[in-house]
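tool_call: predict_structure(chain=1)
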Amino acid sequence: MRILIADDNEMVRHGVKGLLSCDTGLEVCGEAADGVEALLRARELRPDLVLLDLSMPGLGGLEITGRLRQEVPKTKILIMSQHDPVQFAPCALKAGAHAYLDKSRLGIDLLSTIESVAGNSAA
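tool_result:
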């Protein structure tokens, strides 16, 4: 599975890459540091999955999600955020994300959430 990591925090991108390196079936095909770059890279790379920060400079994660769903509809979207999941997860899913993950749980839940999202594509 080819993955684009879109987060304005370089440390988060680096940490996510480290977590993904534990699974040989996952390949980071690109990174983006803001919303506009995330859209451009997704159009160019056509990843299987975009790991997308909710709050980024330029365009926010919810707006990007809607645009990605229109422009690269086969790409799955997993929104990552440090914001309250009770409040923001429903908004992310309504915008078209396939999953929402609290950043405080990345080390615990990232790989299983990706597996779940990938499994939904086979259905």
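agent: The first helix runs from residue 10 to 20. Proceeding to next step.
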